[in-house]
UniProtKB/TrEMBL annotation:
Residues 9-46, 51-78 form the Iron-binding zinc finger CDGSH type domain. This is CDGSH iron-sulfur domain-containing protein. One of its GO terms (molecular function) is metal ion binding. InterPro entries: CISD, FeS-contain_CDGSH-typ, MitoNEET_CISD. SMART domains: ZnF_CDGSH (SM00704). Pfam families: zf-CDGSH. GO terms for cellular component: cytoplasm. It comes from Sneathiella chungangensis. Keywords: 2Fe-2S, Iron, Iron-sulfur, Metal-binding.
């Protein structure tokens, strides 16, 4: 598996907290989307750690095909 499974064709709106780390699911198999629950262990993919620089709303990629991981870049509109 070199690219993640599409979890959904839209982003996840998340309120992140300044200084907190978030483990974004890159494989698409997590039951806790858009975050990792360890399901990637059956793949060669690993979660991407995102550290919030400020408290704000962000859109984490749900299709797992983004070019700006872990955030959505609109790639899901082309799938």
């Amino acid at each position: 598996m070199t690219t993640g499974k599409i979890a959904r064709k839209s982003p996840y709106k998340v309120e992140v907290q300044e200084g907190k780390k978030y483990a974004w699911c890159a494989c698409g198999l997590s039951g806790n989307q858009p975050f990792c629950d360890g399901s990637h262990k059956v793949t060669d993919l690993k979660p991407l750690i995102y550290k919030a620089s400020e408290t704000q709303e962000l859109y984490f990629c749900g299709c797992k095909q983004t070019g700006s991981a872990p955030l959505c870049d609109g790639t899901h509109n082309k799938l």
